[in-house]
Design a protein that fits this description.
With 195 residues, the chain is α/β, with parallel strands linked by helices. 36% of the residues lie in helices and 21% in strands. Strands 2-3-4-1-5-7-6 form a 7-stranded mixed β-sheet, with helices on both faces. It starts with a strand and ends in a 10-residue tail after the last helix.
Length: 195
C-alpha cells in the first residue's frame, strides 16, 4: 500500500496557516477521491484508506494529529499498518520556507532542511530515504511567526493553485513514481508570467 502523509498542526487555529499546506494537499486528495469524513484517528494520526484504479491500488492518506515537531511516531505507525516501505511507498508533503510561493519540489531523500517535522520523521524512521514533496510558502520575518501565519489576501489564489498542483504531483507519484513526478513538477513556477 502507498502512503501519502501531509504534515501540519491539528486544530482550527492552524487550519489555514502556511505550515498546514501538507494537511491541505491530503484533504484535497481525499475530496477528489470522494472520501468523506476526517478519517479514523489511529496511533496519533487521522487515516483514510482509498482504493484507486490500477496500477495504483490501495492508498493510505495520513495526517499526524500531533504537533509538527512530533510527527515521526504517527508516520512510523501508519507505515507499519500499511505494511509499507519508506523508500518506495511513502510520500511526505510539507511546507518549505526556502521555496517561493508557487513552487513545489519533489525529492527521493535528503536532509530535513531545517524542517522540524521532517527531522522528527527521519529520527523515527532511522533514516532519510523517503520521498518528499515540498510546497513553497516563501520566507518573511521570523520563521516561526511566518509559518504560523495565514496567507495574505494577495497570496491566497496562488497558494490554492500551488496546493492543487502539489495534489496533481502526488497523484503522478502514485501512478508513475518519483522520477516522473520530479521531471514534471520540479522547476515549475506557478508565479511565473504566462504567455
Amino acid at each position: 500500500m502507498k502512503v501519502i502523509c501531509g504534515l501540519g498542526n491539528p486544530g482550527e487555529r492552524y487550519r489555514l496557516t502556511r505550515h498546514n499546506v501538507g494537511f491541505r494537499v491530503v484533504d484535497l486528495l481525499a475530496d477528489r477521491w470522494g472520501l468523506t469524513g476526517a478519517g479514523r484517528v489511529r496511533e496519533g494520526a487521522a487515516q483514510l484508506e482509498a482504493e484507486r484504479p490500477e496500477p495504483i491500488g490501495r492508498v493510505l492518506l495520513v495526517k499526524p494529529m500531533k504537533y509538527m515537531n512530533i510527527s515521526g511516531a504517527p508516520v512510523r505507525a501508519a507505515l507499519r499498518r500499511a505494511d509499507a516501505e519508506p523508500a518506495s511507498d511513502l510520500l511526505i508533503v510539507a511546507d518549505d520556507v526556502d521555496l517561493p510561493l508557487g513552487r513545489i519540489r519533489l525529492r527521493r531523500g535528503g536532509s530535513a532542511g531545517g524542517h522540524n517535522g521532517l527531522r522528527d520523521i527521519i529520527a523515527a524512521l532511522g533514516g532519510n530515504e523517503f520521498n518528499r514533496l515540498r510546497v513553497g510558502i516563501g520566507r518573511a520575518g521570523e520563521t516561526v511567526d511566518h509559518v504560523l501565519s495565514t496567507f495574505r489576501k494577495d497570496e491566497r489564489e496562488l497558494a490554492t493553485e500551488a496546493i492543487a498542483t502539489a495534489a496533481d504531483a502526488a497523484e503522478l507519484w502514485l501512478a508513475e513514481g518519483i522520477e516522473a513526478a520530479m521531471n514534471a513538477y520540479n522547476g515549475f513556477d506557478l508565479a511565473a508570467p504566462r504567455a
